[in-house]
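Researcher: Here's the sequence for the chain we discussed earlier.
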Amino acid sequence: MKYTLVGYGKMGQQIAGIVEASDDHEIHAVFDINTEITKDCFSGSDVIIDFTVRDAFLANLPALLSAKVPVVVGTTGCDADMARLKDEVEQAGTSLLYSANFSLGVNIFLRTVRQAAGMIEPFTEFDIAFSEQHHTAKVDFPSGTALRAADMILKANSRKKSIISDLPHDTTIKPEELQVSAVRIGSVFGQHAAHINSEFDDIVISHTARSRMGFAGGAVHAAEWLAARHKVQPGFYTMDDFLDEVLG
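Model: Thanks. This is the structure I predict for it:
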């Protein structure tokens, strides 16, 4: 497979290292955030991986879609654009897989959180909240992964109706609100945790990223899967679609 990378920051460099170490893959082209992107940039590519920033990704989107090459997108901060993005991918008749977090460990963690949130739903003595920590250079707040986890909790547990990430002064959390807290400190790669509490129990489900290699490896796995899926059924996909098929 021939990979084209859009964005060559820390994540792009990690992905390039994994691809170049493989006998089955090669880097076809690399474009940094300042490159003027056209659909011709991707001629000869089997898959594109985009790790840029939101504004650059959205500006490049028409060229990415018109190239008709499957695109894996790890650019964060795009959660509010998902409905529009899905429509544009489907109208273009191509394939795109979006995830705020490609770590296989994180995605297994998210599924565990979803299951736990559903298990405590009948038992009103249990409450649940979510927290995350990242490095100070991270732009989105809370993280896309935290918002993804919160959405999964809301769908799994009908007692939680809305997300609250900023607590106004002199205000308490309502039972139907799901608190999602965020801390930005130092160089933390990423820490996420679901906190479940009752009068008698504390349950904490957590994930800590040790390096960016987990994210980069997951992106390459997703790219392999999307390139094959694109030949059969183009469309808009997420890591859930990838894992659903792999896990059966």
